[in-house]
Design brief:
The protein is of the alpha/beta class and about 270 residues long. It has two domains: about 160 residues, 3-Layer(aba) Sandwich (Rossmann fold), CATH 3.40.50; about 90 residues, Orthogonal Bundle (ProC C-terminal domain-like fold). Helices cover about 55% and strands about 15% of the residues. An eight-stranded mixed sheet has the order 3-2-1-4-5-6-7-8, sandwiched between helices. The structure holds NADP nicotinamide-adenine-dinucleotide phosphate. NADP nicotinamide-adenine-dinucleotide phosphate (NAP) binds next to helix 1 and helix 4.
Length: about 270
């Protein structure tokens, strides 16, 4: 049986809220089982009122109550958090960090020796339980603890175990990825508006089209090029649109975006 009964999330910002919302929506955890900790008072009140969970002003209180502790503060705040909670964490608990660019080695150095640590790179879609998460355990993490964390995170979407050497790439693709897709959805909806559609209609059309296209790739397992060919009629409408995308170097721009974001993740890990 999964030993993680209480989950604490340090930093209830955009990603922290996505994790809280996802766990509660899963119904596997009730508001009594999830804790937040947040230094901004207004944000604490918002979290308490929206999710009916306890949200502490001091992360140390959260650690006492939690089996699984998830650090969801900005990368430059991680060291302070580790220093403040370090003495409260014991080997029975498990620590997860979702901070971009913060390596397992760095966390190990700032925590008692025997604490199991798991580095995770998730994305905002954990909010609707369709997240993508790469996870990597520290070498002292027992197998059962890793399995427990994997099971709990699976409530928020898809989880894969990956060597830490891939985490900068995953950060650029998975962590930042939703922002690229939002930009595409917004642009498609702008096009609809340009063609006279009401904004709300255009937004529904572009968002659902994006969702459906992604789901087709995930569920059929087909290569996207093969699926693309099923949409393109020779001499038809879609090929005209695709030619414009190629002229706009959309493919190269997306590749460059992921590469640049992953380079930035590497820079952060050295800072
Ligand atoms: N956003 C994403 O889509 C995404 C995806 C993958 C990974 N991540 C990672 O997730 C982490 C959080 O990102 P975010 O976008 O959610 O940032 P965010 O919105 O700034 O949330 C972090 C929150 O934690 C608060 N905080 C800072 N120090 C704290 C402490 N000691 N105790 C409790 N709360 C504290 C921050 O307050 P202040 O603003 O006052 O510092 C802020 O409200 C980052 O490390 C990021 O790399 C984010």
């Amino acid at each position: 049986m999964n030993k993680i009964r209480k989950i604490g999330i340090i930093g209830a910002g955009n990603m922290g809220e996505a994790l809280i919302a996802g766990f509660l929506k899963s119904k596997a955890y009730s508001p009594q089982d999830v804790y937040g900790s947040e230094i901004i008072e207004k944000r604490r009140e918002y979290i308490k009122n929206t999710y009916h969970i306890e949200c502490f002003d001091d992360a140390k209180k959260l650690v006492e109550h939690s089996d699984l502790i998830i650090i969801a503060v900005k990368p430059y705040n991680v060291k302070d958090v580790l220093e403040s909670i370090g003495k409260k964490i014991t080997a029975e608990k498990t620590l997860v960090s979702i901070a971009a660019g913060i390596r397992l080695d760095f966390m190990k150095k700032n925590l008692p020796e025997d604490v199991p640590i798991i580095r995770v790179m998730p994305n905002l879609a954990c909010f609707v339980r369709e997240g993508m998460m790469a996870i990597c355990p520290s070498d002292n993490t027992p197998k059962e603890k890793l399995e427990d964390v994997e099971e709990v995170l699976s409530l928020l979407g898809k989880v894969i175990i990956l060597d830490e050497k891939y985490f900068d790439a995953v950060t650029g693709l998975v962590g930042s990825g939703p922002a690229y897709i939002y930009l595409i959805i917004e642009a498609l909806s702008d096009a609809g508006v340009r063609l006279g559609l009401p904004r709300d209609v255009a937004m529904t059309l572009s968002a659902q089209t994006t969702l459906g296209a992604g789901k087709m790739v995930v569920e059929t397992g087909e290569h996207p090029a093969k699926l693309k060919d099923k949409v393109v009629t020779p001499g038809g409408t879609t090929i005209e649109g695709l030619i414009e995308l190629e002229r706009g170097r959309v493919r190269a721009a997306l590749i460059d975006a992921v590469i640049r974001a992953s380079e930035r993740a590497k820079e952060l890990s050295k800072a």
